[in-house]
Specification:
This protein has 444 residues and is an all-alpha fold. The protein has 22 helices and no strands. The N and C termini lie far apart (49 Å).
Length: 444
Amino acid sequence: MIGFAVFWLGAFALGWLLIRATRVPVHSRLELLAWSGGWGVGALAFLAFLLGSLGVRLGRGLVLLVCGGAVLAAGLTAALSRSGFGPRGASLRPRIPAEWIVLGGFAIVLCTLAVAIATTPLGAFDARMLWTLQARLIFDTEAYPSAELLDPAFVVAHPQYPPLLPLAEALSALAAGSFRERLVRLVPTFFYLSVVAALLAALARNDRRFGPLLAGVYALMPTLILDEHGGAADAGLADIPLSFFVLLSVLLLARAREAEWRDHAVAGHLAALAGLFKNEGLVLGALLVASVSFQARRSWRLPLAFAAGWALTLLPWLEVRSALPTVFEEQYGEHLNPSRILWGLDRAGAVLGEMLQLTFLRPNGAGLTWWVVGLFWLASPGRIARLRDVHLWVVPAYLAAIFVVYLITPWEGTLQVRLSFARVLLHVAPLALWAVGTGRRARA
């Protein structure tokens, strides 16, 4: 367990060092914890991917050396710095009854998650057969990509899936010295806590009265906490890490300094990390590249910096993926042609109806989340302009792209919609809640 603790301390330390090195503006201790923890885990996994692709053995000694070195470097940097570990920020103690209710509900959720992880085995099919299985393979072979993953005869479902979640889980297991499902399962659950903290810090800073309530809308979303497998928050899925890095990318873009290309390059890197956790992040990253380009008013340097940070982070993975075999990959790009889309139009009404029901009418799915998003957006002055200014248009554009995927999928009828769309909504829910929260005025 000491090694497991070193892994998490190293993740926070590395994330903190990255924040200082890139001069990312954070405004409170809560925000610093949210950003440094999640970014640190992603950075460790990305570093392991780069080293593994160069043939470096990912052994326990290397993991502890990197994590311990990050802790030591962070401690020395803080000791030599006048500001210590960073901003203190204002207290987020609840002030109104609704905030106390949300806080109480979240406390119950945390206790439930802890009990579920401690007592209930991993039940989500994708988590067990995709990410956890690959994490176990990395743990056993101490390599990525291993010879087994490159061998078409060694059947691993979707070997071309992005590698950062199984790598992060494997690193935590290597540091602990054994592969225990309940420990590695904490990695994606940790990202749920990071999203909640990042949302709470950003929204409360913008609107002290209603911001925490909007963060609570996300934290208590039924899809995250109520499901046959316990909810997405503790089901070992890659959807939450994806949403975390998309949110961080947009938050950084919103507070980027005027004509500061560094902030945009870092934001592009964060958007790329979303794509390295789950394929859908590639679509969201491309949409953010387009959004930043549309917003460029004075200089082409900013969208170029964002695109460069995004592309340079992804290129090593695209090179490695080209060498991996295709086993059960669905290859949607091959189906994306006019004839296939026309073929899928016959079920367009059924697909759209199912998507709308899952968004607005299923209490065990998104709950009231998207009703809140819609009402807050309608109540915001200049709501059309805000679609562009806070990159909110990325949300409907992404859902439209998913709609096209559902049309061309070889799955029968609306089966894929019913199986996956509730999780797809999780990818953009934090971004949507933050965007409409920043657009609110007192009269709303």
